């Protein structure tokens, strides 16, 4: 597989985590919630000192930072460790990779030149030095480095085959490059990737027939791949077939992506676009970009960062590489890094709007909600018909419980949609939640029903509407039917199972209620409302000690301020008798999250 072949090139060692954990507990004040480290083992670190600035201290701090995927801080600590033990090959290798992952290319080059003088594998160092030579147009040296890199690489891994093909093109030997990329690959998965690269090579070499054949082959296999469709359309337009280019964009759906939409507009205006790859630098960068995308999609995050950085080293203008890198940082919750990368996307880029919307989401995650809202508001004024901007504004307001502010944005998106399709159920659902939270039940109910008209199999909507009916003591049989259907659709959703249990509780069927409420807490033990509900049913069943335990547990889980008051009253006095107005002491469940999924960058798929 691609992931295992390439990740082996990044690291071949297996870490001794127990020793590290013991040392770190004593020595370091670095965040303890680091993710699991990549598999690595280190040569013994020669140091008698355990100070924070010692070799061991720097090494361990770097290891923890790397485990947390914090490449910048990890690079800093490994740099310090390397200064104290410059002969340590393992530290040198790690320091090089981290400088590369952080985009510190000058430092990475210095370390790479040191690394290749040491015995052992140095495939990534040769990769980088090959790219550096290629960038300087020293193609003979680049080919030498790529040849040496291939020695430390699985025969099934195509990176060096592709890289050397681009060297051949740069040296005026495009026929040899095309022939090389036409040979059957040793790995079935690589054949498609190499065919895409063959199309790029032929385009750059102005070999129309060869490019057309390659593009046609990959497009017929993957007609909905946006990058392939866009590349094929550009090829067709440059060679004079603009009508066929328009047809490809339309039938593939690429016309709805940022790049495809911009290309469609240019073609309709009679403009001749650029090829997707028009220089050898762009072509070789595309090789590393494509592999980086595949690695990122297969959880090869560490290797993906390096390959994306290599792509940007050769082609700093690659907005797709920047989007991919920002998405990796976002998934790692390193939002400040993601924002920095997104800010580097050009104002004139078709991806600029998409990048700014994503930036707003990351700013919101950094608790900079006012800044995020200001950015989105400015974007909405500049792009009043852009659904993603308005929906993101609505989502941020909903998450902050500013439901009155969210409703107009959802309404504007719904108006822009016109005749809704199945996929638009979420708009009505989210607006319905906002209406329900602002005590506009008639409008909320209408939106929930409209969402179910569009997609009757959405468990979240079934649950919310069913629970709301139960809570109001109306449409009881229908409410149970909706919630039971939701449970069938999502049998492991703790919130939905809680709704079913709470429905039985409201109907005073405590035996049935406890079965479901127990399971709900088992599935979502961190939720205060679910624990509170379980306490209530325990009390009604006479299990008062267990009830107080659950209420105490609910209090420890940071419930809403109003719920804190109610739970404390129950801990003091228990629940009133059945005839009492016990509803006043009960909390209402958060049936489902109120925030829509983040808008995703479009047209970044790997060819």
From TrEMBL:
TPR repeats, residue ranges: 425-458, 494-527
Keyword presence, Signal: yes
Entries under InterPro entries matching the protein: TPR-like_helical_dom_sf (IPR011990), TPR_2 (IPR013105), TPR_rpt (IPR019734)
Positions of the UniProt region annotated as Disordered: 576-607
Pfam families named among the record's database cross-references: TPR_11, TPR_16, TPR_2
Segments of skewed composition (Low complexity): 586-607
Source species, domain of life: Bacteria
SUPFAM superfamilies, per database record: TPR-like (SSF48452)
Keyword terms, alphabetized: Repeat, Signal, TPR repeat
Signal peptide residue numbers: 1-36
Descriptive protein name: Tetratricopeptide repeat protein
Organism whose genome encodes this protein: Rhodomicrobium udaipurense
């Amino acid at each position: 597989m691609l992931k295992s072949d390439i990740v082996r090139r990044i690291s071949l060692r297996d870490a001794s985590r127990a020793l590290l954990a013991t040392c770190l507990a004593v020595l370091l004040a670095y965040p303890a919630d680091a993710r699991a480290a990549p598999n690595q083992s280190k040569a013994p670190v020669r140091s008698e000192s355990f100070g924070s600035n010692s070799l061991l201290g720097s090494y361990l701090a770097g290891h923890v930072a790397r485990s947390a995927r914090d490449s910048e801080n990890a690079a800093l600590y490994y740099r310090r460790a390397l200064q104290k033990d410059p002969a340590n090959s393992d530290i040198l290798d790690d320091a090089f990779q981290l400088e590369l992952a952080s985009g510190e290319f000058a430092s990475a080059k210095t370390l790479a030149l040191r690394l290749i003088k040491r015995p052992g594998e140095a495939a990534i160092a040769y990769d980088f030095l090959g790219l550096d030579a290629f960038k300087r147009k020293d193609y003979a040296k680049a080919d030498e480095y790529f040849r040496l890199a291939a020695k430390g690489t699985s025969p099934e891994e195509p990176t060096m085959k592709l890289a050397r093909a681009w060297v051949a093109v740069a040296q005026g030997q495009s026929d040899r490059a095309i022939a090389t990329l036409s040979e059957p690959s040793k790995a079935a998965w690589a054949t498609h990737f190499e065919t895409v690269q063959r199309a790029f090579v032929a385009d750059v070499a102005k070999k129309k027939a060869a490019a057309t054949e390659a593009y046609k082959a990959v497009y017929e296999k993957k007609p909905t791949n946006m990058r392939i469709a866009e590349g094929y359309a550009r090829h067709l337009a440059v060679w004079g077939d603009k009508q066929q280019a328009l047809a490809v964009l339309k039938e593939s759906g690429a016309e709805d992506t940022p790049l495809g939409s911009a290309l469609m507009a240019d073609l309709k205006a009679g403009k001749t676009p650029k090829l997707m790859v028009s220089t050898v630098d762009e072509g070789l960068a595309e090789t590393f970009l494509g592999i980086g995308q595949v690695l990122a999609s297969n959880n090869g995050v560490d290797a993906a960062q390096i390959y994306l950085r290599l792509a940007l080293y050769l082609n700093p203008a690659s907005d797709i590489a920047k989007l991919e890198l920002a998405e990796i940082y976002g998934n790692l919750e390193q939002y400040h890094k993601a924002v920095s990368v997104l800010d580097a996307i050009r104002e004139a880029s078709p991806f600029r709007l998409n990048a700014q919307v994503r930036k707003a989401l990351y700013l919101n995650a950094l608790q900079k909600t006012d800044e995020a809202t200001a950015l989105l508001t400015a974007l909405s004024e500049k792009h009043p018909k852009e659904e993603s901007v308005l929906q993101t504004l609505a989502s941020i307001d909903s998450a902050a419980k500013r439901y009155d502010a969210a409703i107009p944005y959802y309404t504007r998106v719904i108006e822009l949609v016109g005749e809704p399709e199945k996929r638009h159920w979420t708009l009505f659902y989210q607006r319905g939640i906002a209406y329900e939270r602002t005590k506009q039940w008639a409008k909320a109910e209408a939106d929930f029903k409209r969402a179910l008209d569009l997609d009757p199999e959405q468990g979240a909507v079934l649950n919310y509407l069913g629970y709301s009916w139960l809570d109001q003591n109306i449409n009881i049989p229908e409410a149970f039917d909706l919630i039971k259907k939701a449970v069938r659709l999502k049998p492991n959703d703790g919130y939905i199972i809680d709704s079913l249990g709470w429905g039985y509780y409201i109907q005073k069927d405590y035996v049935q209620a406890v079965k479901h409420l127990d399971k709900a807490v088992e599935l979502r033990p961190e939720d205060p409302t679910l624990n509170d509900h379980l306490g209530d049913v325990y009390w009604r069943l006479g299990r008062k000690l267990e009830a107080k335990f659950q209420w105490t547990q609910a209090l420890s889980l940071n419930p809403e301020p109003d719920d804190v008051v109610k739970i404390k009253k129950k801990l003091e006095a228990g629940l009133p008798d059945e005839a009492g107005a016990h509803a006043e002491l009960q909390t209402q469940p958060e049936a489902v999250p109120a925030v829509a999924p983040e808008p995703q960058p479009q047209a970044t798929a790997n060819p």
